[in-house]
Each structure stands twice: as C-alpha cells, then as structure tokens.
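Fold this complex.
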Amino acid sequence: MSRANFLRMIVVLLLLALVLQPEWFAPIFAPFTPPGAAVIYDRTSLLSLSLSHLGIVALASVAAIVVAVLLAILVTRPQGKAFLPLSRTIANMGQTFPPVAVLALAVPMLGFGAGPTLVALFLYGILPIFENTMTGLSTLPPATMEAARGIGLSRWQRLLQVELPLALPLILTGVRLSVVIAIGTATIGSTVAAHTLGEVIIAGLLTNNTSYVLQGGLIVGLFAVLIYDALTQLEASIRKRLGVA
Amino acid sequence: MIEIDNITKVYDGRPAVDSVSMTIESATITAIVGTSGSGKSTLLRMVNRLVEPTSGQVRINGEPTAGLPKNALRRRIGYAIQGHGLFPHHTVARNIGAVPRLLGWDNDKIHTRVNELLDLFSMPPDEFRDRYPAELSGGQQQRVGVARALASRPDLLLMDEPFGALDPIIRTRAQTDLHRIQRTLGSTILLVTHDMEEAIQLGDQVAVMDQGQLVQHGTPAEIITNPATEFVAEMVGGVDRPLRLLSLLSVSQILEEGAAEGEPIDEKSSLREALSVCLWSGRNAVPVERNGNPIGRVTLEAIRSRAEGTHEPG
Ligand SMILES: Nc1ncnc2c1ncn2[C@@H]1O[C@H](COP(=O)(O)OP(=O)(O)OP(=O)(O)O)[C@@H](O)[C@H]1O
Ligand SMILES: [Mg+2]
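Structure:
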C-alpha cells in the first residue's frame, strides 16, 4: 500500500469512528468540556446528521451541476454568445450574496428546514462549475475541433462526443470546488433548522461547549478533505486518459 | 473530377480567395502552395464547406456541393490537417474508425478496416489499436490522422499541411507513404503546403497561390521551367531550380549504352541522386541497374544538359 493510500485509510477510519463511536473520543474531548456538561454530543445520532448533511450537499450540487453546465453550454454556442455577460453576472451574484442573507430571504418563502439551505448551496455552487465549464468548452484544442467538424460530426455529436468529454477535467475541478464549499456552508443551514452537522457546532457555541464545536468541525472537515481527495483523484485519472496530465 | 468554378471568399471586405478556378482530375495529387495568408486553407475548406464561399461553386463529379447536406458531404471527403486533430480521449482504433462509424458500418467491418490501415502505415494493429494519441510519437499521430481521413475509402482527400509538424526525415517517409497509398487506392488528393519542395515531390499538379489568387497551375516541371510570375519564380527558388528539375527526372530517361566504374544506382533513382553520386565519388559516369542487373550508364554530361533552364524536360 502506498503512503498516500495508507494515510487515506487512516483518515477514513478516524472519520468512521468519530461518527459511529464518538464515545471512544471522550478522553480526548474532556478537557474542552465545561464542568457538568456532556463531553460527546448525543441529542441526535451523528450518523443521521452526517447522512442528512451529505444528502443536502449532494442534492444542491447535482442541481448546481445541471444548471451550471447547461448554462455554460448555452453561452458557448454561437447563438448563445449574447447571453454570456448576463449569465456571468447572475452567476457572480449568486456567489457574492452572503449565504446567511440567502437563508434569511429564503425562509419566508420556503419555511424552516432543508429548503432554504438547498437554495443557498445551489446558488453558491453554480459559479465555480459555470466558470470552469465555460473555460473548458472554450479552450478545446483547435485542431481537434476543426477535425471534428471536418469529418462530419453534427453539432450534437461534437458536443456529446468531443466537447463535453474533453472539458470534463475542468468541469470536475469546478464541481470539486463547489462541493467542498457546500460541505462547509451547509453547517450554517442548522440556524434555520436544516438537519446538518452544523447542529453540533451551534449547540457547542450556544452552551460554550468547545468539545461539541471540535467534534462537529472535525467531522465536517474530514468529510471535506476526503471528498476533495476523491474528486481530485478522479480528475487526475481522467486527465491522464486524455493525455493532458 | 473536382471543378472549382470562379470561387471567392471575402472576409471583412477583403478577398481571402479571389476568383479561383481550377479542375482537379480524379486519381491525381494537386498540391496547393503559397506563402502564409495566401488563402490556401480557405480554398481547401470551401471544398468541404467548412467555409461557405461568398460566390462561385465547387462541383464534385459534376454535382454542385452547395446543394448537399454539409455533414453528409464532409463524411464523403477525407480531411487531414496539421497537428493531426485526433480525439485525445479515443483510442487509435476509435479515431481511425470515426467516419465509418458515422456512416453506420458494422463493427466487424470497421475493425477489419482499421487493422488494414494500421498495416498500411506500418503500425502493427496489436500494438497500436488500443493506444491513446498521447501515447504515440508525433509521426505516428500524424499517420493516424491520415489513416482516419482514408478510413471510409473516400474518393477525395483534403489535406492541410498534413506533414507540417514533422521532422525532415519522418516527413520524407510520410510523403513517400502517402504517394504509395494514393497510387494504390487511386484517390484524388488536394494537399496544401507552404513548402515548394513538398509540392514538387508530391504533386502531379501544382497550384501556386499568391494573395488569394491562383497565379499558376501546372505540372511541377512547368512550374519550375516556366514560372508564370516573379512570385512563382521566387517560390521555386533561383538557385535550387536545376536541382529541383533533376529531382523530377529518373535515371532511366537519359540512360546510355555502355559501362562505368564503381557502385551502380537503380534506374528509378532521380537525376538529382545520380548527380549527387557522381559528385561524391568523383566519377563522370555511374552504372545503372534494373532489379540488380546492369543495363547501362548515366553520365555527368547528360545530367548537366538536362539541368539547363532552356531544356524542356522529357
Ligand atoms: N475566419 C476568418 N475571418 C477573417 N479572416 C480570415 C478568416 N480565415 C482566414 N482569414 C484571412 O484570410 C486570409 C487567408 O487565410 P488562409 O488561412 O486561407 O491562409 P493560408 O494560405 O492557409 O495561410 P497559412 O499558410 O498561414 O496557413 C488571411 O489573410 C486570413 O487572415
Ligand atoms: Mg493554412
């Protein structure tokens, strides 16, 4: 086993233990707990919080991927060039809007729960994917595109068989950035009663219980690291296949 | 037969190709040569309608291309370009089979055809079929690019500086390969190059372009001995002209009776090679052989007389 894989395995095991057997870590977290308070968060199962957290992230990311990629395809077609500045502005706005503000605005419409969080993560996720997909689709090797046209591939065939596969590594870079941002941002969702790992952190902040904050933070952080790593590896293997290392 | 009829392409008010007409006979190679920006690629790309002409017409076997669906037209015409343009995410086999697949050939037929082409280009199928373009040398990539253009056995092949990126040795070999393959398959080839040497070596006909216009269209020998304009004369190159002329003639054309000393050369060698042998070995005559049997000699004197500008080549 390579050094990197060994490290990966350790991190996975650590994360599993933190989620499934948190009481194992009581001695480590004890010094951070105020007298009389519980060391380990036990109001909800950490497993259920983790699954719900990841579920919200996954749902919002899938929606962001679909919308961002479609938008990028649209504005890189000759007929869609006119929409480029507009869609850039919209995507940028999604990014500059503070997530808390998105939550505050979305609650009156969608009520408390996962809804506002999904909207915030979705808006947040679009920009990196859109920008990367657009770059990917507009920096394809000119000779390959010329040949694709020259041998008689139709527009659709070019898009599906050549352009998207070649832009894939860059699209994945965008997805990776966006997913990692979403994993972190989803914690804020707990302020509007979304079922995420943010609950643990917020409970810690409200009761001055640093060990909760550490527990929640650590789990979120490890998820982010592992998912980032997995997507990086996927991307590298695709790049290698494309010979663009 | 390809007829290019008074074709013009105007970009931003300036003609990139200016009223060009020419007829390309079937089963010949026509080399379009000219300086950078003279409109060679634009002319070529109007044949498969990657560029739509501003005015004029292209006819393939009498049929105007303007009336045909673009993609169907392109699938009928082989297209190879500088920098090969292979699909980096597809294997060699899939790259070569691209057009047959578009045309709906069945898999067995595509498989056989791909192997056939790889063999033709001296790339053992077992070794190369499943490689990706990034795993090939530049020369191999270029050959796969040409193989892809040939895959569906198109009657017409358009090539835009297909050997531009190759080093001189590989380039010469690629040219020889192309020539051999064209002769075997009887394809019609329209090839763009900015290298007069390549045009003369490969072309049955050479078309010289200057600032969007076709300034001369003729056999390599005509172009060399009778350049139509200053520009063509410059392209042909004053100093090298005799040598270029000699490279078009074979030893068998000035064969004499008699014997000579030293290493023989084959009757198919060019006069340029014969001259080179004479000079290098300090001889005034060289024995000539056919299939390894002596059949006569070629003299320095005869070569010299052939290289004189006034002499029409035989
Ligand atoms: N899409 C285009 N838009 C505007 N001008 C163009 C376009 N394509 C070509 N041109 C112009 O047309 C002229 C001829 O270009 P073309 O590509 O045919 O030249 P070329 O002979 O192939 O040159 P090279 O040897 O450099 O490839 C050039 O002046 C070029 O700038
Ligand atoms: Mg060109």
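The longest helix of chain A spans residues 210-242.
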